[in-house]
Amino acid sequence: MASVGFSEVMPFLSLYVATLGHFSRGELSIYSGVTFAATYLVAGIVSPMWGSLADRLGRKPMLLRASLGMALVMGCMGLVSNVWELIVLRLIQGIFSGYIGNANTLIATQAPKENSGRALGTLATGSVSGSLLGPLLGGVLAQFFGYRPTFFITGVLLLSAFVLTLIFVKEDFEPVTKEETNSPKEVVASLKHPRLVFALFFTTLIIQASNTSISPIISLYVKQIMHGSNAVSLFAGIVSSVPGIATILAAPRLGELGDRVGTELVLTFGFVFAILIYIPMAFVTNVWQLIGLRFLIGVSNASMLPSVQTLLSKNSPTEVTGRVFSWNQSFQYLGMVVGPVIGSLVSGAFNYQMVFISTSVLVAINFLWVWNNTRSLRKKHLDQLHR
């Protein structure tokens, strides 16, 4: 429900920006990119603070904070009169971020380490299910009711996530006092493979930058290849949500596969596959080709972020897992700032197609980084398989 509420407005957010003023194509790309990135900029700054607080108060209070705060802010977005008011609300939304991240931490700290891949893969299925339904539902609602009412409906959905969390989520949590909380230096010292952990942080940044670089222009790109059709909002919702279908099918299975053959091998597969899929997206001639390729990119998504989270869980002591995941979430949010900015600048300077090419290059750089930093893990799992 939280993921539905968060992703529901994404397919038409840039189209909504276009209704708030008279902008050129370049201006619209820039404003759309800033609007997308604003939430993640603030979220990346405050995430470590919430992570530290979660270690002392528990993850459930953080889930309640995030869902209620976003419900109120999202409803207010339907009342804005210009793009700057929308940007300010997106900035405020960043303060109330962290629902999915804290859910990941809650699972990572309570699931047995040997089953963490399956547990986090299953949780990713729930999150991605919302990401699948959200854009599709948002596109349908925007098509039939308009943009502003959809923000109000989204606020109600996020409020329902707050109520469900309050009633049904249970946490077996032992509070950590402020005095007992490890300093950042102590957290790093407790890690067996700190270089690997920081490489995974950087990997998270690049994955999210790659995923979100096309977010500000996806509906504008759909509008271009559909030649201004009246059904742009609906098809933009389909294009945004269709990767979730593949991810729902693949994430749990890839999680289990990673537990058997090595999560780093599954992660490597995801990068290579993504590089091969992003490039042809720049050359589609109709929306159905784009939908087909977006379905395939969902498979790579299912093998990347869950794999990173699993590797972090397996390489972090339980007592500092919350801090490590909060740091990773900061890098995730930073990637969500960098991605839309790159997409906006590239599309403004060149065209929409060039965004997909630049995204493929970004994924290739990340692949080389991961390949270099997981060499010892690959050797270890290959030796185990040969035995």
Strand content: under 5%
State the end-to-end distance.
44 Å
Output the structural class. mainly alpha
Report Rg: 20 Å
CATH class: Mainly Alpha
**CATH architectural designation:** Up-down Bundle
**Low-pLDDT residue intervals, each spanning 5 or more residues:** none
| CATH fold group | Growth Hormone, Chain: A
Number of strands: 0
Mean pLDDT score:
79
Shape: globular
Q: Provide the CATH superfamily.
A: MFS general substrate transporter like domains
Largest sheet, in brief, is:
none
Count of domain modules: 1
* SS element count, helices: 17
Percent in helix = over 70%
Order of helices and strands: HHHHHHHHHHHHHHHHH
Main location: membrane
Protein name: Multidrug transporter subunit MdtG
Pfam family, one: MFS_1
InterPro entries: MFS (IPR011701), MFS_dom (IPR020846), MFS_sugar_transport-like (IPR005828), MFS_trans_sf (IPR036259), Tet-R_TetA/multi-R_MdtG-like (IPR001958)
Description:
The chain has a single domain, classed as Up-down Bundle (Growth Hormone, Chain: A), CATH 1.20.1250.20. Helix 12 runs parallel beside helix 14. It is globular. With 387 residues, it is mainly α. It starts with a helix and ends with a helix. It is found in: Cell membrane. InterPro entries: MFS (IPR011701), MFS_dom (IPR020846), MFS_sugar_transport-like (IPR005828), MFS_trans_sf (IPR036259), Tet-R_TetA/multi-R_MdtG-like (IPR001958). This is Multidrug transporter subunit MdtG. It holds the Pfam family Sugar_tr. It is a multi-pass membrane protein.
